[in-house]
Amino acid sequence: MTTADDKIKSPQPFEDRPGFTPETLNVHPELSGAETPESQWPFGDLTVSTHAGRDGFWVVARRPGGGGIALRTFPIMGAYALKKVAGNDAGGDWEVETNSGHYRISLRLENGLIHMTSRLTPSHDLLVAFWPRDLYVLDNNDDPRAAKGHMEAAQRGLNGGYCYFCLNEPDFGNVLYMQNLTALNPFFKETKTTPDGVVGGEWPELGYQPPAAPNGNTPPVDPLPKGQEVVISDALIAIRAPCAENEFTMARTFLELLADIYPHIDKPEPVLRDWRWRAARTLEDLKTSPDATVEHYGFKYLHPYTASEYPDSMVQMSVVATLREYEEVCQIGGGFSAELAAGMRKFYDEELGVLRRYLPNVGADKDRDAVDSWYLYHPLMNLARLAINGEGWAKELFFDGLDFVIRAAQHFDYVWPIIYKVTDFSVVVKSREGNGEDGLGQTDVGGIYAYVMLQAHQLTGDRRYVDEAKKALKALEDFRFELAYQTNLTAWGAVACLKLYKLEGDQHYLDQSLIFIASLLHNCELWGSHLNWAEHYANFFGVTCLHDGPYLAAYEAFECFMAFDEYLQEGGDDIPDSARLLLAEYWRFTLDVLWSFYPDALPEEAISKEVRNGHIDRNLSFPLEDIYGDGSPAGQVGQEIYGAGAAFVIASRAYAECPGAPFRVFSEYPMQVDCRDGQVHIRLLGPKGYKGRLKLTPKDEGAAPRIALLAHDGEPVPAEDHDIYRAAADGRFTVMWQPPESTAV
């Protein structure tokens, strides 16, 4: 049995390394040989200086008596000529001549950040075989070898290019280093490389290492062109002292530092999409396509993928719940969700008392008894959602299946394996590494379990469900950045923590919600890829599906969108500004990123010809499961019918309308809309200091009403483009209107 004792422990301090690279050994002689700074600036309680070493030009941040960090500004060691071009009290600009080419280096010390950009114009067609990492931790004698600390997080795959670490001997503090990978697209394209896991390193040699073609029998053959300037590094560093005391302050500090850096990385302008149109088309395809549904026992069930895979309780309830919301909020007639809901009872095993994954007649190629740990909780979550809205059938089925999943949680001591048998709880796959002893199973299942328990408490008032939620969340302590297993589960865990905080008033649970959020953001692509087919879609702030998932996934993305909407709606002013900024920005970019999963939104050539599940039909408005930061062909896993909820959720939550109002509201930030006194009152839940687009679209195609958007102080907000307004992202607004024939508002 997997127990809480098997889980990963807190990071241990650096002690001994088996050895050091030549680059690390070179740092101390470089800096000690250039003791007089080339330039120097006070920087809060730090000092930042530049040093011209024998083999390189360095930016060094030091804390008096507390060590420091050294950033290499250009990667090619050897003779060079340095020229300072400009300087002021917030940085400077330099030019460097080397045998390989001409560098332009800029340093900016603003808003508590160190921002260094290095650009190279090669003097020859330049092959990139090996360039060292660029960041080194230092002790009080500028020696990396004696500096002690630990890494909290490093880049996973093609996710955000950052590493987060603590240097605590000497007591320098927490550091978040980030590469603005968007700016490096030309480098990756010319060298035909990808930024896969390029930011991280092994203590004490950290930071960014540009990807290079392998050596040996396959040397690099794609050079940086002679005479063409390219950004080779765009590094941003945020520092906070002292080092975080525990995982709670670790997560809060990470979010604060990331929120400090976030405004300074390259971001696209999200394209405004017509999600109401998309939702209507998706519903029509669900109703009419023979590839979407199949009948068993006289009921209609969904294929998980186009004309592929057996009906599945998670798939069925995911679409039922999101479609029900769309039907109710958007006043869509027809009640197709009721047809899909009618057959849910057939998934229930009366003998075991469990809502199974598959129907009783599932094929022999499936092990009906084996289940992923999270699978039993997810359909219950959606049943409870309907039960809370007053649907008696859903409440009955929810509680029929609840005792079993509680027994499962207690059996596994709230630390779940990957797969087990529902018949006897025997473990099929224990951990991420198969059946190894790493102890890392489905680490965030406790989060969705806690969410379901709090739903049960909401339905009954029974405190034992609150106690269950607390036990599950307690078992998740000390997983830190290993908490995320499947990102939508991580998101629901954050909401569960917030709900428990609101219920109990215990700050501990608000703090724990930030651990879930930090771990999830570790799995987001915080850069815009222009590589290969990625030129044709949006990936900025897209979430990868699993802790080690190689692709962005539609299902996980829209579930995170739902969870973060709930978090922002319920959290109010208790949410730290850093978390509000990052979650609201995730919400905003998801409105664009999710559109890229629909096959009709991509060139046909960008879609994989080989598909693991079913087939891809570009005429069906169901999202592909997978798109890739490296621009690999999309849809390799298949076309998700269970992803249909993406359009339904966005059409329900990014839009609002009031009875009698002749327009529909769209917001790219979460919003609350109140209809009263013949006016529409809007509160945006976005970050302070930002602006977001509000769109007030007339419902009728005829003459448009005259509309005025007024800020909280009564001042009109001017329209930016026809019916689009750019308004304070955390503002309150009133919409007033007159019929089109009127001459005054």
Model description:
With 745 residues, this protein is an alpha+beta fold. Among the domains are: 23-264, Beta-galactosidase, Chain A, domain 5 (Distorted Sandwich); 656-738. It is built from 15 helices and 35 strands. It has an eight-stranded antiparallel beta sheet with strand order 5-6-7-8-15-12-11-10. Strand 16 (293-296) and strand 17 form a beta hairpin. The protein is globular.
Strand-helix topology:
Layout: H1 22-32, E1 39-43, E2 46-52, E3 57-62, E4 68-72, E5 80-88, E6 91-98, E7 101-110, E8 113-122, E9 135-138, E10 148-153, E11 162-169, E12 173-179, H2 185-191, E13 199-202, E14 205-208, E15 230-240, H3 247-261, H4 275-288, E16 293-296, E17 299-302, H5 313-329, H6 336-341, E18 348-349, E19 354-355, E20 370-372, H7 377-388, H8 392-411, E21 419-421, E22 427-429, H9 445-460, H10 463-475, H11 487-504, H12 507-521, E23 524-525, E24 542-543, E25 552-553, H13 554-571, H14 577-593, E26 626-627, H15 645-653, E27 655-656, E28 663-667, E29 671-676, E30 679-684, E31 691-698, E32 706-711, E33 719-721, E34 724-728, E35 732-738
Antiparallel strand pairs: 1-2, 2-3, 3-4, 4-9, 5-6, 6-7, 7-8, 8-15, 9-14, 10-11, 11-12, 12-15, 13-14, 16-17, 18-19, 20-21, 21-22, 23-24, 25-26, 27-28, 28-31, 29-30, 30-35, 31-34, 32-35, 33-34
